[in-house]
Amino acid sequence: MLPFNSLISSSQLSPDIIAKIFSLTDDMAAMIDKQGRSDLLDDKIVALLFFEPSSRTMLSFQSAAQRLKAGTVFAQSASSTSFEKGESIEDLIRVVEGYSDIIVMRHAQPGSAAIAAAACEIPFINAGDGGNEHPTQAIIDAYTIYKHKGRLDNLHVVLGYDSLQSRSIHSLSQLLAQYANNRLTFIGPAKLFPSDQLLAKLETAGVKCDVKEQAVFTDEVDVIYLNRLQEERFEDRQLFEENRLKYRLQRADVENSDILVLDPLPRIDEICTSVDSLPNAAYFKQTSYGVPVRMALLAGLLHKKP
Ligand code: NCD
After folding, report:
1. Does position 136 have pLDDT exceeding 90, yes or no?
2. Which candidate in 64, 138, 178, 231 could, as Cys together with 294 as Cys, close a disulfide (CB 3.0–4.6 Å)?
3. Which residue segments constitute the domains of the chain, with CATH numbers given?
4. Which residues line ligand 1 (CB under 6 A)?
5. What is the position in ligand 1's atom list of the atom closest to the CA of 137?
6. What string of DSSP letters covers 214-282?
């Protein structure tokens, strides 16, 4: 049902494919409401390889597999597997595909998803490859924007505060670049602006991009997408310490506005908890879409129609 065997990057996601995934997601959400679980994948086994910490992604993939009655096999840290012994990604994938029908992998090395997918003969999903990409999160983010704003084009989206290292920001910005007339403003410390390479890619796709050290949340902003400073990816510890409390969304910044506030979570310092009760704070709703979106991806890549 999906026109690829592996989901590695959100740049694979054209508006047509996104529309297909959203429609499948709606079907999955309706199925959950009606009956809780279905037999759709009861002849399948999903391998969940999480070699970097994860709560939401791992648990929602597990929940998605179980709602469709697929079996699961798990590896939860690099140290519990043969990586510790020096096994290559390719060899591990060749082994795991003998135990499963689809592989979901999170790994600390940027580019590891492409390496794994190239070695993999069964469907493969990138659940985050270091600071590079996180395409399934981008689909959840886009689904949330679509549910609240009714469109994925003609949007002004502000993203921060670590656009250099946040794989969620990398993937969402590339997904939004597939739609017309989007404007992206990246905010945060100058040292954490997106790479020139990402900016060039987005601009070539027709997105108007700005970078700003000071955030301005005016009425013409449709969405604010914040992600924590990626502490574990900082080479310069001082840069992290200097900025971790400098950039925080306050209630007054978005109160009485229609600006949709999103965060892939975990929230650390980037959004004050006083924002949580605002009607436009949608990050907990956003995380709840993780299960139906991931059910849609598992079924879509395994060519199973609900
Ligand atoms: C994100 C990730 O792992 O990149 N989390 C998630 O999957 N919801 C965001 C983050 O860790 O900052």
Report:
1. yes
2. 64
3. 6-133+289-301 (3.40.50.1370), 135-287 (3.40.50.1370)
4. 56-57, 128, 134, 137, 167-168, 227-228, 264-265
5. 7
6. S----TT--EEEE----GGG-S-HHHHHHHTTT--B-HHHHTTS--EEE--S--SSSB-GGGTTSTTB-
